[in-house]
Design brief:
single chain; mainly alpha; rod-shaped
Length: about 100
């Protein structure tokens, strides 16, 4: 008798599980029109766009910082930090990456 709510519901098959599933179905029927609203879809797309652009900028900066040090070391060669060539070598990779 445990799965039945009342003795009167035995014949109808209205168990707790059936009632819970019925409530979930009713809720999903109310949610569907809301989730298909064009304004909500536009907001979700904008949020996704922002995250994608932020991720792209992050990985661009990460890759640029990784490659710039190697390019600077190659171009500067044996120049010291007091040499203008050493400082100018830092600008080469970011200029090419921006093109």
């Amino acid at each position: 008798m445990w799965p039945f709510r009342k003795d009167a519901d035995r014949g109808s098959g209205r168990t707790r599980r059936v009632e819970r599933l019925g409530e979930r179905i009713a809720e999903s029927k109310r949610l569907r029109p809301l989730s298909l609203d064009p304004d909500l879809i536009a907001v979700a797309m904008e949020r996704t766009r922002r995250r994608t652009v932020a991720g792209l900028w992050f990985f661009l900066a990460l890759g640029l910082s990784f490659t710039t040090t190697g390019v600077q070391a190659f171009l500067a060669g044996d120049a010291g930090t007091d040499d203008p060539v050493w400082w100018a070598a830092w600008t080469v990779e970011p200029m090419f990456a921006g093109c």
